[in-house]
Design a protein that fits this description.
The protein is α+β, with helices and mostly antiparallel strands. The chain has eight helices and nine strands. It has a six-stranded antiparallel beta sheet, with helices on both faces. The two termini are about 30 Å apart.
């Protein structure tokens, strides 16, 4: 998907003279537009970042196109009632072309072109971009399906391997070591840990970890978290659960065992 998006950025520049291009895909929840490729060729656009370009469906020009499924040709983005100023970029006059990616009757993303100045695009540019977006949407959808199949195959292989090694493991340490070694592949994470409550029931401590640098691993191995602190983070005991960034940031630094500015 990323390679296709980058190719679109490059090829579009040979067909339509633009100063900035943003390509968004709709997330699985169909509420968020995720920037998968963006490139500005002038200083006015250099402040754009991934976080700044994350967009809700219905928000701004990009979100409007995603929610309505209709293309927009704007002489000046300032004239669009729902336009949103991207953080880190100057307020300038710019012409805009914004077109949805469609797969069947579903909108799957958007492509957004802008150029400094008023009336820099015309109907021919719009028609050309719509044709390109139609072809690109098919390529992106095919790539997404292939990527999902590949990831599913990798996870299935990892689960099969894990099942095999666990059937031969004879102690808790071996089971946890093999399980944690497989988790990064299956979940796409960089680090994993297993914690247990000690016999006194007063503390939680790390019994196995994977992916941490030696210094951090040493700190975490020496760390003991009081049960009353750890229990505030355990949302349930029967099912898996996730802690969002806000909750994690609220953990006292002395119990993180890490740089407070980079909590895990």
């Amino acid at each position: 998907i990323q390679e296709i998006a980058e190719a679109i950025l490059t090829e579009l520049r040979t067909l339509i003279d633009y100063h900035n291009c943003r390509i968004h895909l709709l997330s699985e929840d169909r509420r968020t537009l995720v920037p998968i490729a963006f490139r500005g060729h002038l200083l006015e656009y250099q402040g754009e970042t991934f976080d700044a370009l994350l967009t809700e469906v219905g928000e701004g020009i990009t979100g409007h196109v995603a929610s309505t499924g209709q293309s927009l040709l704007l002489s000046n983005a300032r004239d669009f009632e729902g336009a949103v100023q991207i953080a880190g970029t100057p307020d300038v006059d710019e012409s805009v072309l914004a077109v949805p990616f469609r797969h069947g009757d579903r909108v799957t993303g958007t492509v957004f072109l802008s150029k400094l100045g008023v009336d820099q695009f015309d109907q021919d540019d719009l028609r050309l971009l719509e044709v390109l977006a139609s072809n690109a949407a098919v390529a992106l959808e095919n790539a997404r399906l292939l990527q999902e199949e590949r990831e599913a195959a990798e996870i299935s292989g990892a689960l099969l391997y894990l099942s095999d090694v666990l059937s031969r493991a004879r102690d808790t340490g071996s089971v946890l070591k093999e399980a944690l070694a497989s988790i990064p592949l299956m979940l796409g994470c960089a680090e994993a840990q297993a914690w247990i409550r000690d016999a006194s029931r007063d503390m939680f401590r790390v019994v196995q970890q994977q992916g941490f640098d030696p210094e951090t691993a040493g700190k975490m191995a020496a760390l003991k978290i009081p049960a009353e602190v750890a229990e505030t983070l355990i949302l349930r005991v029967e099912e898996p659960f996730a802690l969002d960034a806000e909750v994690v940031a609220g953990v006292l630094p002395e119990y993180q065992g890490l740089d407070p500015s980079n909590p895990r």
